[in-house]
Design a protein that fits this description.
Elements lengths: L1 H13 L7 H10 L9 E6 L2 E9 L7 E4 L12
Antiparallel strand pairs: 1-2, 2-3
Length: 80
């Protein structure tokens, strides 16, 4: 019984909003900038909670604004 309760609690945490798919996170960033201009402040729910950012043009589609965190460190890709 204890194992079942523990498993239920763990699954509750794992299956929460932190498990949003990549497309859902992308859409949240776009939705945060709807009706705003480039450079406007915005916020959205990221993997680790609320993210404050600014609206910028998308890399793939410059006609779409999306909310980006200006303080986010870019990951270095390892070259082989």
């Amino acid at each position: 019984m204890k194992n079942l309760m523990l498993a239920t609690i763990v699954l509750g945490f794992v299956s929460g909003p932190a498990m949003a798919s990549k497309s859902e996170r992308r859409q949240a960033k776009i939705s945060a900038c709807e009706g705003k201009e480039q450079g406007s402040t915005c916020s959205f729910e990221g993997r680790r909670g609320s993210v404050e950012g600014v609206c910028k043009e998308g890399r793939r589609n410059p006609d779409v604004l999306k909310c980006v965190n200006p303080n986010r460190k870019k990951r270095n890709k390892k070259s082989n």
